[in-house]
Amino acid sequence: MKLYISVDMEGITGLVDQTFVDSTGLNYARGQKLMTDEVNHVIETAFQQGFKEIIVNDSHSKMNNLLIERLHPEAQLISGDVKPFSMVQGLDDTYTGAIFLGYHSRAGRKGVLSHTMIFGVRNMYINDAPVGELGFNAYVAGHYGVPLLMVAGDDGVAEEAEALIPGITTAVVKKQMSRTSALCLTPEKAGWLLREKTKLAIESRENVAPLTPPENPVLTIEFANYGQAEWAHLLPGTELDGEAPLVRYKAQDILEAYKAMIVMTELAMKAKFC
């Protein structure tokens, strides 16, 4: 059996504001350690449950946050940027299942450091249904027939996952109080929970179906300002709304939609607010 783990940072216990998740922040080094420790709990449990190969994809910011020298020695790490498929780089049909760790709720929703890819995105849609990083990444896994077995993070992302994927296991390591504060489990207690939930997710994996993406999906991104939408519209094949900061892209499949989303959000970050 082969397991894919995508690890973001905002959903790790104790990480509550920008100082923990920005490489220039005061608490970033602490955040790296806590992030690495959480993924090790999942890795060790998965090996104990019979997995023979585990690939971890660092999925936050520049995607070089995990401390490889502290990572479980039998796991392999995908690290660094640029990645054509970003948070799901390397995922394909050879995997038995996937786990998303350290995830957060989508833009516009309550949750610790909630957003979708960049802070300039207000909303993102696939065929008019709102989607965040969790949902988009789960669709890519579903494209390959890979079920998302577990999502770990705050209570906001757990609620989002349970609404999207019947039977999924969720691990809540902190409960939101505001966008930059939370009631957090201690790292030791979070580790116990992650081990328990990982074991449960693997044992009940037959109860979770892959999230099948729609055929010929239409991706729509609503940006915070029109300048961002103008930059995103530089991607050939996009349609720019004449009144609102909305950009649409009609894709052949979810993989093309995902690549379009990466390009559009990267371009949008070139726009300035003032």
Automatic annotation (TrEMBL):
The active site is at H115. It comes from the Bacteria. Coiled coil: none annotated. Zn(2+) 2 binds at D8, H60, H104, E133. Zn(2+) 1 binds at D8, E10. Keywords: Aminopeptidase, Hydrolase, Metal-binding, Protease, Zinc. One of its GO terms (molecular function) is metal ion binding. Pfam families: Peptidase_M55 (PF04951). The keyword Cell cycle does not apply. This is D-aminopeptidase DppA. Metallo peptidase. MEROPS family M55. It comes from Aneurinibacillus thermoaerophilus. The lineage of its organism: Bacteria, Bacillati, Bacillota, Bacilli, Bacillales.
